[in-house]
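Data availability (excerpt). All sequences and predicted C-alpha cell strings are deposited with the supplementary files. A representative entry, PTS sugar transporter subunit IIC, is shown inline so that the format can be inspected without opening the archive.
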Amino acid sequence: MSGSLFLAIFTGFWYWLGQSKLGYTFHWFICQPIVMALPIGLIMGDVPTAMIMGASIELVYMGMVAAGANMPADECLAGLIAIPIGLQTGMDPQMAVTFAIPFGVLGVFVDQARRTINAGFAHLADKHALNANTKGIYMCAFVWPMLLGFLLRFPPVFLANFYGANAVQGFLDIIPEWILHGLSVAGGILPALGFAIIIFIIGKQKLLPFFIIGFFLVQYLELNIMASAIFGTCVALLIIFLGKSPNSDNEEGGQRI
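C-alpha cell line:
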C-alpha cells in the first residue's frame, strides 16, 4: 500500500470516527486539528511542520461554540484536509490556515445533509416502537446513522487526500506570487480572529479576574506555556470540585454508608 493511499484511508476513517460522536469527550478530543496533526505528521515524516499547521488551524476554531449543537464550522474536516495537503505541497502554515477555512464550511453542509437524512431513521424508529421491535430501534439509533455517516464523511476526505495534492499543487503553480503572499497574510490574521472570539467568551465580568491574574502571573513569574497550562488546569479543577453543591458530599457519604 502506497503512503498516499494509507494516508487517505487513515484520514477518511479519522473523520468518520471523529464526527460520529462516539464518546462525548473522546469525540471532541480527536476532532481538534492540534491532535490529528501528530499522527498525520508521523505518517508523512514531518511532525514539527504538521504540529505547527495543526496549532495554527486550531487557533482559528479554538473559541468556536456549537450553539444548540449546530456547529458553525467543522474544524475536523478542515484539519484533516489542510494539514496533509499542506505538507505534500510545501505550504507555509499561514497559507494552510487559509486553505483550511473553505473545508471547515463544507463540513457544515455535510453535517446538515446527515441530519436531514437521519430524520428518516427517527420516523422509522417510531414505527418499530409501536411494534415493540427493540432490534429495529437499535438499528435506527446506531447502525444506520453510523453507516450513513461513513458514506457521507469517508469519501470526501479520502478523495481529497489521495488526488487533491496534485490538483492543489498545479493550482498553486499558476497563481501569481502576490496572491500567494496575500493568502499567507490572511492566514496569519485568522488565528487572531480565533483569539478575539475567545476573549469575547472569557470577557464576562465573573471571569475577567482569572484572565488578569493569569496574565500578570505569566509576566512576573515568567511562566512558560507548559507551566501555565498545568496551573490553569489545577485552578479549573479546584473550581469544579469546590463548586459542587454542599449537599453532594453528604449525599455521597450517605450512599457509602
